[in-house]
Amino acid sequence: MEQPSSLPQIPVPSVPSATTKRNNSPRVANGSTSIKYEDLNFQFIPEESKYEKLTKIGQGTFGEVFKARDRKTKKLVAMKKVLMENEKEGFPITALREIKILQLLRHENVLNLVEICRTRATPYNRGMSTFYMVSDFAEHDLAGLLSNTHVRFSLGEIKKIMQQLLNGLYFIHENKILHRDLKAANILITKHGVLKLADFGLARAWSKPQRSAQNKYTNRVVTLWYRPPELLLGERNYGPIIDLWGAGCIMAELWTRTPIMQGKTEQNQMFLICQLCGSITTDVWPNVDKYDLFTQMELPTGQKRKVKDRLKAYVKDQYALDLIDKLLVLDPSKRYDADTALNHDFFWTEPEPIDLAETLSKHTTSMFEYLAPPRRGVQQGHRPNPNQANMHRPVHNNDQHFDQVY
Ligand SMILES: Nc1ncnc2c1ncn2[C@@H]1O[C@H](COP(=O)(O)OP(=O)(O)O)[C@@H](O)[C@H]1O
Ligand SMILES: [Mg+2]
User: Fold this and answer.
1) Burial (0-12, 13-18, 19+ Cβ within 10 Å), 63
2) Active-site residue flag, 141
3) Which of 147, 154, 214, 270 is the most buried (most CB within 10 A)?
4) Ligand 2 centroid vs 266 CA: distance in angstroms?
5) Chunked in runs of 10, what are the mean pLDDT values of the chain (406 residues)?
6) From atom 22 of ligand 1, which residue's Cα is the shortest distance away?
7) DSSP conformation letters of 85-139
8) Binding site annotation covers 80?
């Protein structure tokens, strides 16, 4: 077990939700989406020079990530740069939210945030520091591992990966946090085989709406290929179950080694979902007609559900096929949650979950999506920006072709 590291408490002002309008958010300095960093108490924040940067390991949509070493303790860490490009002055609210959420979550299967550090403020940078989120270093991410054909996981090892993924999800959901960007690149695995949910850049706190009230969260979240059908149909009153769709996609990917539904547009993504999970009707999903987009989007009709049929060439285990089938359920109210999934026979029949440490010990170089050659059929991630207007792209009819990429 890891010892929780002592993270200096940053007095983070309360963070408005993504749906908060810019000009009526009283706690945000200047009425913008950033906070003046002079307003924060930075006396606990060490300088970047405390760490020695070693290599660049990630270039996400929102910034660079470096492998680094604490000069004193020699401990390896990852440093994720907080992007300040669009901030004239101040600390981006999205980064504050990510930090606040990571500070709250302490679990074996959630990435441990060590601290925030900063560059020295000099006249050259007009007295403005750059900030880094410092976290424990993990040797691999799942996208990197899956892109390496030399890495082969046994059924027991796949069970261990899924069990840890669902344990992490169970924990964050118990703590009323939605991840909202599950995908292989955001799942880290240490050389000891411990899985860590990472990248809480799109995460948010969730609360169950009171009686007839409805939450109005943005639905422009989750990388397109892992986005559940209810978000594609415009749902804004959603909860933890949206993350379980992504868990289902990732579970299948552990065998196919490439994302199973690589849509090019939102419309095309829905099309691929229907190709795999069957047509969306009020029979399989009562009340689905409440969404305007259900009638506005052009959706295939008469499609049979083929989840097990199409995946059986890759997934030989019946229990595994059944659990994928229970996660990739169109109607979110019938989709398995993390707890139910953890109780599925898949985890409780032979072979039992097996530690990954031995398999990983054969691979001494780190595997990250950033460093790996593109996976088969994979072009781009389509990570959404939830700060964009909550608008749907127009529906095009001419992109209904689909590529079966696995
Ligand atoms: N603690 C860490 N240890 C190892 N690699 C990491 C760590 N944090 C991030 N990375 C790598 O950097 C990539 C980008 O980081 P992430 O937190 O996902 O940011 P982004 O918002 O840019 O996607 C990850 O996919 C992973 O490969
Ligand atoms: Mg990421």
Assistant:
1) middle
2) no
3) 270
4) 20
5) 42 36 30 52 77 91 88 98 74 88 96 94 82 96 95 97 98 98 97 97 94 92 97 98 98 98 97 98 97 94 97 98 98 98 98 97 90 70 52 29 38
6) 60
7) TT-SSSEEHHHHHHHHHHHH---TTBPPEEEEEEPPP-GGGTT---EEEEEE--S
8) yes
For residue 47, what is the DSSP state?
Answer: B
Count of structural domains, the chain: 2
Domain carrying residue 120? 48-136
Residue nearest ligand 1's atom 4 by CA: 138
Catalytic residue among 141, 181, 199, 243: 181
| Domain CATH code at residue 243 | 1.10.510.10
Q: How many beta carbons lie within 10 A of that of residue 403, not counting itself?
A: 11
CB-ligand 1 contact for 133 (6 Å cutoff)? no
Structure tokens at 284: 């399989």
State in Å: Cα 70 to ligand 2 middle: 23
301 with 352, same domain: the answer is: yes
Does ligand 1 come within 6 angstroms of the Cβ of 256?
no
| 80 shares a domain with 112 | yes
Do residue 65 and residue 152 come from a single domain?
Answer: no
Nearest-atom number in ligand 1 for the CA of 185 is 25
